[in-house]
Amino acid sequence: MLSSRSGRFRLRLLPRIIVFATVAYVLSWISGFPLQYDDEELPPSAQRPKPSLEPFPVEPDKLVVTVKTTAVDAFAKVPPMIVMTDGRYHDNLLFMGDLHMDVGIWHIFDVLDRYDRTFLDKTPEMERYRRQLDYARRSIPLSTIREEDATEEKEALRKLDKYKILRMLEKAWEMRPERKWYVFMDDDTYLARSNLLSWLGQFDNEKPVFFANPPSETVEPFAMGGSTIILSVQAMRSLFVDHEKLIPRWDSRLQARSSALDVIGTVLATETTLKMNNTWPSITGFNPNTIPYGPGMWCELMIAMHSVPSDLASDVFRFQRDREEFQHVRDPLSYADLWLHFMQPENLDKERDDWDNLSSGSDNAHWNILFEGVDKENNANRNQEPRAASGEESWESCRNSCNNSDFCVQWSYSSTEEPNYNLNPPTKCHLSRSMRFGSHVAPGREDQTTWTSGWRKDRFQAWAKQQRCKEQQN
Ligand SMILES: *[C@@H]1O[C@H](CO)[C@@H](O)[C@H](O)[C@H]1NC(C)=O
Ligand SMILES: *[C@@H]1O[C@H](CO)[C@@H](O)[C@H](O)[C@H]1NC(C)=O
Ligand SMILES: *[C@@H]1O[C@H](CO)[C@@H](O)[C@H](O)[C@H]1NC(C)=O
């Protein structure tokens, strides 16, 4: 009796298990469904993990990321950086600066303590560092060491950076020798590690490789370039294994160099003949509000952005995490994805007052539309481009001028003439082929210039629809 009841029960149980399993499968399928469904793709749960297609796969523990910080910024910049770095990368995340400090359980290494006292005392550019040591010894709050003038503060830190860079490389090699790749970046750089790992997989780390994004080069808007530097293990060996005590030999030659990037570039070129390779546009000085979305950037991978405020970094981090961990999207994050996430939801139909930083500025020079009748002599390439009528009289005429130019996707009108940093003369009407979000500009700031800006999202979306990123990538 008992056994036959339990037998019947088992028979009923089986269909239930099947129903339950089906429901669980469907639920997991729905929760993993990508928001932007790409019809070439199977539902993510039906995809098998792709075998690595890269010839030189980089495992997460083979990438060492060294973040450069400074004593006065460390407590503001280091904690967000840690929070926005997935735990699986923490073992190879190093912080280096200009004073020994602890931020929670993380130590910030003072790499300038590697110079001897005599060198410190006789090097004028190390004045800030000497003062920091003095303040720390006498328990004077470090925040008071900052220069009041932002430019002077930047200058003081730029000088220290020249002395930090080689010592950072040296320290990273001592702490994590013989990994595959070494990244050195600023404390306000957003790094998309999964993109970086797969991108690096194209390159043989057993060859000397040196990537960086130089801050300025003719037309291309490297203008806001930071100083992300990527070296292969072979490039690191050429400095620390092939040569004995190479770094100290450069101490006295650092003063003549202009920046940290100049230091590392010169040392590698002189000691190893290794030249820098460009990483534009995957590593740029833009952030989601300043990226000039459009031709030349749309399909490209975003690997790193510089000068990203923490709140914006957090938005990008959450977006990337949602895509990868919850929607299981395996395509690397591109600028097009950032546009869809950050700009498409914005209502850009109406012009905005007190709004700028989109069409003016040297970093947009490349995308500004030239006006009819400007100098036709010295730039053959740009003379091929369609021109626009100027719209100097009012923001309405500037908007018209944009409406009447097929390639114009945004305009900004300034109350005073401002440069476009290209063949255009100083102008109030700034027209652009790229689309940027920009930012609110409080009226009545020091220069009294006011701004009104507007977009043509419909036109931009029509353009975007014609781009075929999948085929262009890889
Ligand atoms: C670096 O640039 C040189 C010259 O353009 C090129 O030949 C080389 O393949 C590049 N190396 C890498 C790793 O991209
Ligand atoms: C320019 O185009 C926008 C959007 O299509 C439209 O709202 C606006 O009225 C146009 N302006 C003129 C002057 O045609
Ligand atoms: C606009 O961008 C420039 C650099 O391109 C920056 O110096 C300025 O502070 C920005 N203005 C605003 C309001 O964000």
Automatic annotation (TrEMBL):
- What pathway does the UniProt record associate with this protein? Protein modification; protein glycosylation
Q: Does the keyword Glycosyltransferase apply?
A: yes
Stated name of the protein: N-acetylgalactosaminide beta-1,3-galactosyltransferase
Protein keywords: Glycosyltransferase, Membrane, Nucleotide-binding, Signal-anchor, Transferase, Transmembrane, Transmembrane helix
Write down any Gene Ontology CC term. Answer: membrane
Q: Where is this region: Disordered?
A: 376-395
Bilayer-crossing residues are 13-35
- Native species: Massariosphaeria phaeospora
Membrane topology of the entry = Single-pass type II membrane protein
Family statement:
Belongs to the glycosyltransferase 31 family. Beta3-Gal-T subfamily.
Write down the InterPro entries for this protein, in alphabetical order.
C1GALT1/C1GALT1_chp1, Fringe-like_glycosylTrfase
Its EC number is 2.4.1.122
